Amino acid sequence: MKWICRAAIGFLVLLLGACLLSEFVAPASYAHQFRDLPDAPPSRQHLLGTDDLGRDRLSRLLYGTRVSLLLAPAAALLSSLLAALIGGIAGFAGGWLERCAMAATDLFLSLPWLFLLITVRALLPLNVSPLASVAITFALLGSLGWAAAARVICANTRSLCASDFVLLARASGNGGGRLFWRHVLPNLKPVLGAQFWISIPVFILTEANLGILGLGVAEPLPSWGSLLRELESFSAFSVHLWQFIPVVLLVVTVSCFHLAMQKQELSS
Amino acid sequence: MRRLSRHAAKILVVLLLSGFLGATLVRFAPGFRVDEQELDTRLSHASIQAIRQSQGRDSGLVAFYFVYLARLLRGDLGSSRTLQQPVRQLLAERFPETLKSVGLGLALGWTLGLALAVAAVMWRSCGIDLFASLLAGTVLCLPAAVLALLFVIAHAPGRLVLGVIVFPKVFRYAHSLLEHSASLPHVLTARAKGVGDFRVLLWHILPVAGPQLLALAGVSVSMAFAAAIPVEALCDLPGIGQLAWKAALGRDLELLVSLTMVVTMLTLLANSVTDLLHHSPQEGEA
């Protein structure tokens, strides 16, 4: 089983490398239009063909993967930090602060995730620049996805606070802030790491859902959501199977994240 | 009875808080209750002020919330800006469609997930286990919207997508629960004494795994409602998921907030019912 996990991590590293070097690897810019070649099949010049606007599919796939693969971890980091802050402080302080924080968590968990997301997305301007739309989409994912993780971290902090070493540190005269920063927080790292890894595939899939619905990253900047939107124009009469390559890549990447999480669990 | 009242109180508090959040979003949304009448140059400043006051636009957030809450209590959910119809009427028209899709999806997802989990655990067949795990793993890696698009391309009924979305979660959870229950000492003893597979499942495994499966039932309702947005939008099913999508594209916040609150209430009700069912046998024993 270990070799599958290693292969998954290897694939993710390879994909990330290809995406980071997309300026050099991609045959063209993601927005460049080959106007005489719209909807072209794969060829030596365009390995995955072109879309209906004549843009090179491989280039768009590489740039789109970069957007999703770099910003989903950034959103996961934001949500993990928020969860650490809210759950950690609530579990450490206890009493009414913990009850209030957990009530807020309950409220967030009761609201259906996608409904909440599109409601807040609709509140923000929809006709913004592509870069702003990327920032808005992933910032929203990060700032609304902390609730479940906060509950886990609060429970862990509470059990850590009741442990012998924290009691000893408290008896040795360590104050609240120092106790939290030096003794509790370092011991929360494995839980925070697990929450971070769990969030990445969730955010990748949610961005894809939002993108297909036209509420994610704006054109011409590609992301997995906007690339998958192309499937809407798929016709059974003119079968272009290469249009499914983003779907295959998404499935493989998310599977690799799931396998990498198993590796984390095995090592911890 | 005490548990029931506690659940009712929790639902009420969450609804009041989500109502407050909703009212805040609506109140501070750009273009909140902008009226074309105000552009009429014949109207005096006093008339424009009167129009604004009649719409409660100059009121503060707290006052607005109480007006909003009073309206909700009367069953008035406001009106949709984009569709020019009362939200209540839109809900009445579209809710049965979503209930049908969600009901069918839950039934299909649970039947498929539970049947494959039971088959994999009871027959201890590597083939079934591998096939079901691969299928569940692949579906888990696909966004609901892509599944909906694949169903559209294959000309398959869109309603079935929700079942495919619920299935992997049910299978994975039920599989690990049943596997754990099947390895308990009393189950092994029953098997060793020659009790048949069906009886072992019905009398020894399911009663242990049942309460936790019930908890998953509550969660799967929320999952199915959330997935209804991309599925109904892409499969052209006229339910509240499609309505929410249209409202999001048209920035119709009043409609979106009402829909979110209705779905929240349903989710809370489903969770409370499963929780009450989970605890009622234990209270009976006590």
Could you please describe the fold and organization of this structure?
The complex is a heterodimer of chains A (268) and B (286). Helices cover 71% and strands 0% of the residues of chain A. Chain A is mostly helical. In chain A, helix 3 runs antiparallel to helix 4 (95-110), helix 7 (147-161) runs antiparallel to helix 9 and helix 8 crosses helix 9 (176-212). Chain B has eleven helices and two strands; from the N terminus they run H-H-H-E-E-H-H-H-H-H-H-H-H. Chain B has helices spanning 2-28, 45-54, 61-73, 87-122, 126-140, 144-153, 160-182, 185-192, 197-234, 240-249, 253-285; strands at 79-80, 85-86. A two-stranded antiparallel ribbon of chain B has the order 1-2. Chain A binds chain B through residues 103, 106-107, 110-116, 118-123, 125-126, 201, 205-206, 208-209, 212-215, 228, 231-232, 234, 236, 247, 250-251, 254-255, 258, and chain B through 10, 13-14, 17-18, 25, 29-30, 137-138, 140-146, 149-150, 153, 155, 222, 225-227, 229-230, 233-234, 244-245, 247-249, 251-253, 256-257, 259-260, 263-264, 267-268, 271.
Could you tell me the number of beta strands of chain A?
0
Which value, in Å, is the CA radius of gyration of chain B? 24 Å
Low-confidence blocks of residues of chain A? none
Mean pLDDT of chain A: 86
The biggest sheet of chain B, with number of strands, parallel, antiparallel or mixed sense and barrel status, is:
2 strands, antiparallel
SS field, number of helical segments of chain A: 11
Layout of helices and strands:
The complex is a heterodimer of chains A (268) and B (286).
Chain A (H helix, E strand, L loop, with lengths): L1 H19 L1 H4 L31 H37 L1 H16 L2 H11 L6 H15 L2 H15 L2 H8 L4 H37 L11 H5 L16 H23 L1
Helix pairs in contact in A: 1-3, 1-11, 3-4, 3-6, 3-7, 3-9, 4-7, 5-6, 7-9, 8-9, 9-11
Chain B lengths: L1 H27 L16 H10 L6 H13 L5 E2 L4 E2 H36 L3 H15 L3 H10 L6 H23 L2 H8 L4 H38 L5 H10 L3 H33 L1
Antiparallel strand pairs in B: 1-2
